[in-house]
Amino acid sequence: MTFDTEQELEQINRYTRKPLTADDVYRFTLTLCDNEIDRDLERFTPAALGELAALFVGKTGIFDHSCKSEQQSARLFDCWVETDKTRATSCGEAYTCLKARAYMVRTKENEGLIAEIEGGIKKEVSVGCAMGSLCCSVCGADRRTTGCEHVKGRTYNGRLCHDVLSNATDAYEWSFVAVPAQREAGVTKAFSKEAPMTESILETVKSAKNELKLTKAQLTALQADIASLEQAGADAKAYREKLLSEIGRCVLIALPQIDKSLFVQGCGDMPIHALETLSQSLHKQTKAMLPAKQQLSATESKPTTDNHAFCI
Ligand SMILES: [Zn+2]
Fold it and tell me: Of 151, 178, 200, 274, whose CB neighbour count within 10 A is largest?
């Protein structure tokens, strides 16, 4: 999509005290929101996106919630709705999103930020707006007045129950934070079903600049993951100790001239696969050194014990 510089400057200069030139401003395109179900299990109708397009023009937004300085803000000077008929949402609608053009007045302070946007570092956008209608996606009941028995997040006849947002009455703010580049450009649904929960949390953690907010579902998933990691850690520790004690036992037989404790201590930092290899070769060595009789007697004793079971 190409943009007419003269026409855009005209749009931008509606918001400025003195007329700005093309060199004064940095302009870029972003996606504000779409008609997919978002992380709060809410979805805008395509019509609502159209209403929001009109309401968001002229609104300023900030980069990262912590940077509230004038230099870190951008203003939307054009908003429109785009529909991709080749792509269906999880609700079976044609994918529709609210796109916008924004500008920033170039300053020394925002040079780095502009380079970041130019470099393709994708931004996750969040929008604040007032919606006149919030309905249940299953039965259409108004959530704020009548209500219904359907629970958000549960599945009914294979469809995820969520809130449908329509009748936009106001648009307050928008902001964006950097997210890893592989994510889709400027999308609102950072925690969609496409990425496993833990992956999405990791992305949130990696891209966080200051404080970090997790949803209840994310917190539960994270706590479950921590518990399973702790268990895996305890298992690995027990296995390592078993290997070390095995190595120590073999050292006594195979390498009697070496101090067992020192040897085992020296193995302390070795990765598990190396300990396994060492243990196996020491085992072989030990086996070769032990008198053959001892091995035979060990095998011989077994059938005797087994036969006991049949003695009456
Ligand atoms: Zn309902």
Answer: 200
Structure tokens at 205: 């953690």
- pTM to 2 decimal places: 0.56
**CA 160 – ligand 1 centroid, Å:** 11
CA 10 to chain centre: 40
List of residues 6+ apart from 162 with CB closer than 8 A: 37, 41, 42, 43, 137, 152, 153
| Ion ligand 1 residue ranges (Cβ < 5 Å) | 136, 138-139, 141, 148, 150
Q: Are 125 and 33 in contact (CB under 8 A)?
A: yes
CA distances from 149 to 17, 114, 135 (A): 53, 48, 12
Distance 158 CA to ligand 1 centre (A): 14
- Residue among 180, 171, 195 nearest 75 (CA): 171
CA–CA separation, 115 and 180 (whole Å): 16
Alpha carbon distance 6, 21 (integer Å): 9
- Specify the DSSP class assigned to residue 71: G
**pLDDT in tens for each of the 312 residues of the chain?**
788 999 999 999 999 999 999 999 999 988 888 999 988 889 999 999 999 999 999 998 877 655 455 557 899 999 999 999 999 999 999 999 999 999 999 998 888 888 877 777 656 777 888 888 999 999 999 988 888 999 999 999 999 999 999 999 888 888 876 553 333 434 332 222 234 456 667 777 777 777 777 777 677 777 777 877 888 888 888 889 999 999 999 999 888 898 989 999 999 888 888 999 999 999 888 888 876 544 444 444 444 444 444 434
**Residue 165 corresponds to which tokens in the numbers above?**
């947002």
C-alpha of residue 257 to centroid of ligand 1, in Å: 78
DSSP 144: T
